[in-house]
Amino acid sequence: MGILLDKGPLYVEHLPGGSIFLTAADSFINWARKSSIWPLTFGLACCAIEMMASYASKYDFDRFGVIPRPTPRQADLMIIAGTVTKKMAPRIELLYHQMPEPRFVISMGSCSNSGGPYFDAYSVCKGVDKVIPVDVYVPGCPPRPEALQQGVLTLQRKIQAYSMLAAAKRKAEPVA
Amino acid sequence: MTSAELLAAVQAKFPDVVEIPKTAGQVRGDELYLAVAPAKIAEVCRFIRLDPSLSFDFLSFLTSIDWKTHFEVVYYFVSTLHHHKLVFKVKVDDRINPEIPSVTPIWPAADWQEREVFDLMGIRFSGHYNMRRILLPDDWEGFPLRKDYVAKPDRYD
Amino acid sequence: MNDLTAPNKAAEILPQKPPETGMFISLGPQHPSTHGVLRVAITADGEMVTSAQPDIGYLHRATEKLAEKRTYPQIIVLTDRLDYLAAMTNNWAYCLAVEKMMSTPIPERADYLRIIVGELQRIASHCVFLGTYGIDIGAYTPFLVAFGRERERILDLFEEICGARLTYNYIRIGGVMADAPDGWEAKVRDFVKEMWGHLKEYDTLLTYNPIFMDRTKNIGTMTSEMAIAWGVTGPNLRATGFKADVRKDDAYSLYPKMQFDIPVGKQGDCWERYWVRVQEMRESLKMIDQALDQIKPGETMAKLPKYFRVPAGEGYGHLEAPRGDLGFYIISDGTPSPYRMHIRPPSFINLQALQQLLKGWKVADVIAILGSIDIVLGEVDR
Fold it and tell me: What are the 10-residue block averages of pLDDT along chain B, 157 residues in total?
């Protein structure tokens, strides 16, 4: 359990008939969230093929608990893989709002990071972060499947570091 | 049929269709290039499609070029029966409301290609059943492939 | 052969205004079928489709406009991303057009390497088609086998020769970027030997699987007349029984020295479009073996000046890409960038046939037919 809770507090007591684990709610809930991130199957362009390759047998994603879901209503993560055009941007916004919280976004590839090789095209958004908030940026054109998996691992570290208590406190006391 | 025979066959029916000669120092393929007037394009196309010795039944591609003073629409035809090729170039002078007849009733392959030419260059094809934008959003202003197009920055730039 | 000179009945086959009655289903642009951002607006009368209008443009990246600002070698990077499942053939088609205009002789070794990587790319692209078509129909194993195993072997070979897995930028104007490293040709031969066995595996997994045949036989039939009228090329046209292949009709590179057959179907249904692609993989394997037998050591790049100029004029170069007849029409005015570049995209022109092809089939068949046309949205929208 130690490596999974990433140095969170852990108190174990063995009793006849079982054990008691005592830990912080944050650690435990974040561990559950990060170990079963379910992304939306949402590929736009070439990066989608590398994303599919990372789901396939050679660079298996299932070992991280990542299973693709076809509908945004059941997904935690949206991997924007490919160029975001101005025609597609409102639909991406709609899909993002259809995902229930907690939701995360990984921007995969140069095109969704900043426009990529098409940065001076008239019909391309200069980065998907002009449309939705992004948690992790994965550079590459296209990024290798290992790079995308490192992006998901970075997201896992980010999720583990999240504190619900701190977020509730921020909500209760808005920044002046 | 060789280029000379093709030219003779077309000019027999439409004498005002002329060959575009290769200018000095210019590279070009060895297909026959013909200049057709915009008003006549539908008739000439119907002739080359239906005439048994020509039988150009395959429209390979259809595109447009902006030459700053005028537009040009290029058609590339192939005959699957006789294995010869033909290129039409249609000069459209009007830059405000360019319009030429559509060849979609003759080759359905022209359907989306004409819509793309309208979308990106602004040349209308009269007689097309669905002359709407295809690649850009429906509310896009302007025709991007024109040389004088200036992109309007919006919230996505 | 069908009489293709009969007066065209275009008025009957062109779609008219969508009917007012019936249920409207908007399929996409985000849907689990992995073909990219395509939207099909379907009007259905119960289970039967009465009208289907594909709605595209969600991946329009303005490649043709960008080409006017980039220099000729820089455009090869853009061409990679058109049909991103077959980047080698995209590069090759563009280089064919430019080399035609410059009349550059290509060294023989470069031509053989181009053929080897081109045919390997065709096999890789058809592996993706096989895998994703299986998923569309409901079979998950062919995806893991064809996409996750065979295609990864091919991508390993490509990574050794040019360093990239998907967007290679390998075939350059005048030759290829780099020579094959030592031992690469032996690895390709090993792969070809193994692939013959794997193709037999696909036959048992998918091709003659009764459920697959039930879902794809006699579905979405297309006649040669209809295909030629709509400008359909590639395996879709060959499945209707019409023998047309740019590698034989308008042979380029060293294909006249290769011996291969052109598989054709009979009735142009979904199963035959699938079957033609599997047979094409076999022909590609034969061609790779022949090219490996004939290749000799030599130069891989023609002697071109560092900043070369393409003479003024125009040129059209086309070849047989895995999806159909891919062509580049380039107009040059002597400057380092083209004046106008137009891409003849096979997927774009194949997709418009869907307006007629989907009418009268059930909604469940729409996915089967759409998958069998094998489009890539990068090429459709450019």
Answer: 84 87 83 89 89 89 92 92 90 89 90 92 90 90 91 85
Q: Where are the domains of chain B?
A: 3-108
Indicate yes or no: CB of B156 within 8 angstroms of CB of A125: yes
CB contact under 8 A, C315 and B105: no
Scanning every residue of chain A, which has its alpha carbon at the shortest distance from the alpha carbon of B135?
A87
Q: What is the DSSP letter of A124?
A: B
pLDDT digits (tens, 9 = 90+) for C154-165: 999 999 999 999
Mind telling me how many Å the CA of C150 is from chain A's nearest CA?
A: 10
Distance from CA of A48 to the nearest CA of B (A): 21
Q: Which residues of A touch B157 (CB under 8 A)?
A: 125-126
SS (H, E, C) chain B: CCHHHHHHHHHHHCCCCEECCCCCCCECCCCEEEEECHHHHHHHHHHHHHCCCCCCCEEEEEEEEECCCCEEEEEEEECCCCCCEEEEEEEECCCCCCEEECCCCCCCCHHHHHHHHHHHHCCEEECCCCCCCCCCCCCCCCCCCCCCCCCCCCCCC
**ipTM of this model?**
0.94
Tell me if B50 and C348 make a contact (CB, 8 A cut-off): no
**Whether A87 contacts chain B with CB within 8 A:** yes
What fold is seen in the domain C63-381?
Answer: Cytochrome-c3 Hydrogenase; chain B (1.10.645)
C66/A121 CB distance under 8 A: yes
Count of CB atoms situated within 10 Å of the CB of C27:
18
Judge whether A50 is closer than 8 Å to chain C, CB to CB: yes
Q: Residue C5: pLDDT above 70?
A: no
Residue A91 at interface with chain B, using a CB cutoff of 8 Å: no
Q: Report the CATH number of the B3-108 domain.
A: 3.30.460.80
Entry pTM: 0.91
Domain ranges of chain C: 63-381
C81: nearest CA partner in chain A? A46
Region A89-109: mean pLDDT is 92
